[in-house]
Amino acid sequence: MNRRMLCLGLALALTLTTATAIQNANTSSLPRFFERFSLTKDHMLPPEQNGADRRDLEALISFKNGITADPMRALSTWTSTNSENVCFWRGVWCRKHSKRVVAIILPQLELEGTMSPSIGNLSLLRILNLSFNSFKGRIPPELGQLKALRILDFVFNGLEGSIPKTLANCSHLQWIRLSYNYLTGSIPAEFGGLGKLKKLRLSYNHLSGSIPNSLGNCTSLLYLILDSNYLTGTIPKAIGELRSLEQLLLFDNNLTGTIPPEIGNCTSLTFLSLTNNLLTGEIPEANNGELKSLRSLALNANYLTGKIPKSIGELKSLGSLYLNENNLFGPIPPELGNCTILLSLCLQNNHLTGKIPKALGELKTLSNVYLYRNDLTGAIPLQLGNCTSLFILILNDNYLTGKIPEAIGELKSLVYLYLNGNNLTGPIPYSIGKLSSLSELILYNNKLSKSIPESLGELISLQKLDASNNQLTGNIPPSLGNCKHVTDLVLTDNFLFGKIPPTLSNCTALKRLKLSSNSFNGDVEIQFSSSIQVLSAHSNNFSGTLSASLVNCTQLTLLDFSKNRLVGELSSYPLANCLELRVISLSSNELKGDIPLWITNLSRLQVLDLSNNKFGGRIPSTLEDLKGFKDPKVSQLGATTLYEDIPAIKIKGFEYRLEYVLAANTILDLSNNNLKGEIPPYIGNLSQLRLLNLSGNQLEGVIPASLGQIEPLEQFDLSQNSLNGEIPQELSLLSKLSYWNVSFNQLCGPIPAGKQLMTFDERSYQGNPKCLCGYPLESCKQNKSSTVPSPSKTVGKSVWSKVDEHISLIAVGLGFGIGLGGIMIWWDRLLHIMRGPKIRGLCTSADSQTCS
Q: Which residue stretches of 95-197 are H helix?
């Protein structure tokens, strides 16, 4: 549970209990808590004593006048015409046998407004409780006039400004509760004079400055709760004088320095939390054993160094130990096994070494163990099987070796088991199948081998199974179909084979199925449920077509079957109804036919990779309707949302492995197909494209100038086509290009002199005619060629087969200085062979000025 929500819950519970008792109290029987303050509703007094003190009445009327909203009509009886019955007003309590107001108790009434300074005139006021309302503005300094005040409770309001120093004049104050406001400034040092103060709660404000040393004089303090502010400086050693202190909560501040050993003198402490500060140094060894009553020790999220003190093992009442997220090193002390009622052990994110102590197996009450992201070695101790109350066991990202012990199957209460990121070997224990409460089993990034045990099918509560990146073999056990609540099944990067078992159709809650990088084969015949969102199975041997059940997968966001052997026309694939699709990757299959028109209905699509197939025809003009390539907001995902398991994207022979792709990224890859015709100018309207790859096709015509409008474009590949004409000057506007390739085309004319285009070398332009000039190629002023070859009508697949052998011969001839006449002879012969059209935009000696 979130730490802040836990504290909030505790505060709410305490206040609600008090408020409920107050509201439910009848006029003849008061809560014991208030009886000692001699409060009464005064209706029991004789009629002749029912007149209210005029000053108190005026103060109450002034208070009401400061209320701007009272939706529950709580103060409806607070009127001057009803002044004779002031002790009957809601929330007003009077002194016995008197008409003086001694308490105003108005919690949880949705009151809004500001506090009138006239409250300071209620000279006998002992309790002022306005908690859980919406009061704004400052706390009136006039409250310092309330010499009799015992309890001041303004928790959960919208109060601003500083805490009045004048409150220190209220020498009888026992409770000050100002948490969950917007108070600023420092904690008044004058509070050190409040010798009767028992509870000081100032948490969840905007307080700054240091903790006053003078608080060490408040020797009656039971609770010092200053968490969730902006306090700085060191923790005062004077806190060690608070021998009655039970709770010291200073977490979520900016405190520095070391932990004062004097805190060990607070022998009544039950809760100590210094979490999320900037504390340094070692955890004090001395006096740790004196804190016999300590139930929770939280020092996590600091910069503490050194070893974990062995003396912590002497804290026999300890139920929770939080030392995570520090710079602690050395072994986990076996003495922790003496904390026999320990429930939570959180030591993650440190630099702890050595083995996990066998002594932890003595902790029969242990519920939560977090040891992840350390440098622990050795095997998982068998003795952990004795911790039968374990609910969470998180050991990931260490250097643990050996087998997962069969004794793990004795942890019948276990719900979360994380062992990923270690060097564990051997099989997945069959005994894990006995963990009927297990919800998440995370084993990825180990060296586990052999087959997945059938017993996992008995995990009826299982929701997540991730055994990816291991050395597992064999088939997926059909018994996994019994795990009807599983939402995530991740088995990528293993040596699994065979077909997907049809029984997985029973997993109706399945949202993410990831089977990539195995050797699965056969048709994809599983009946996918409508809840499926991610379907990733790239780099396998699947054949045939995809399951017809995908027509019902209306929540599918990612489909990746790249690097398989799928066949047929994509137009027949049942994806037209999957309107939530954001990623389609079907590259490196044997798909053919035209690119289907239904793709344009996928308005949220941001990654479309159909490369390395046999698609033909033209690039459909309807792709202009892909809104996800125009407006990132269409996807309804944040810019930092990650898509997982995107396969490699290939650009000009270089493979870019995109394990994670930001949702803000957009990719259109149609490379290495048999697409013909011209590049549609509308592609320039896909204004959010980051990667555009049309290489390795049979595209012809000119490069549309509109492509210069795609301002975010970073990867741009048009190589190995039959494009002709000049490179448009508008492409010089593409200022974010990190990869640019127009090689092996029939381009001519000057290369645009854009800032980003000037960063690419001749490899981006090789394989074009000599009339392509300008940096980084030959200067256009020196280029005197008046003719160029016509483009070839046939384009192959490989880098070199993309260039017709006749064109290659001409390039070689030119390289050795063949004269113009020889070139013309070759040119005539080539025209006879190729019968291709001439390329527009030739740079001749007559227009060499223009070329330069």
A: none
- Give the burial string for 493-525 (b: 16+ CB within 10 Å, else e): bbebbeebbebbbbbeebbbbbbbbbebeeebe
d(CA 737, CA 724) in angstroms, rounded, equals 22
Structure tokens at 240: 């060690």
Beta bridge partners of 93: 103
- Given this model, what pLDDT does residue 14 score? 37
Q: How confident is residue 656, by pLDDT bands cut at 50, 70 and 90?
A: low
Q: Could you write out the three-class secondary structure of 546-562?
A: CCHHHHHCCCCCEEECC
Six-digit token pair at 769? 């005619």
pLDDT band for 623, please (50, 70, 90 cuts): confident
Cβ distance 719 to 651 under 8 Å?
A: no
User: Which of 146-150, 446-450, 630-634 is least confident?
Assistant: 630-634
Cα–Cα distance between 297 and 286 in angstroms, integer? Answer: 15
Q: What is the phi-psi region of residue 738: left when phi exceeds 0, alpha when psi lies from -120 to 50, beta otherwise?
A: alpha
Which residues are CB-contacts of 550 (< 8 A; sequence separation ≥ 6)?
528, 556, 559, 573, 574, 575, 578
Break the chain down into helix, strand, coil percent, rounded to 5. Answer: 25, 20, 55
Residues 310-327 have pLDDT tens digits of 999 999 999 999 999 999
Closest CA to 752 of 645, 851, 607: 851
- State the Cα–Cα distance between residues 553 and 87, nearest whole angstrom: 67
250: which residues sit within 8 A by CB, 6+ positions away? 211, 224, 226, 227, 231, 235, 273, 274, 277
pLDDT tens digits, one per residue of 259-284: 999 999 999 999 999 999 999 999 99
Does residue 21 surpass a pLDDT of 90? Answer: no
How far apart are the C-alpha atoms of 654 and 648, rounded to whole Å? 9
Task: Describe the strand order of the beta sheet including 722-725 as a list of residue ranges.
Answer: 676-678, 698-701, 722-725, 746-747
Q: What percent of the chain has pLDDT over 70?
A: 81
SS3 label, residue 351: strand
Beta bridge mates, 699? 677
Give the pLDDT band (50/70/90) at residue 468. very high
Identify the CA nearest to 658 among candidates 718, 587, 579: 587
Cα distances (angstroms) measured from residue 152 to each of 67, 128, 174, 178: 19, 5, 8, 8
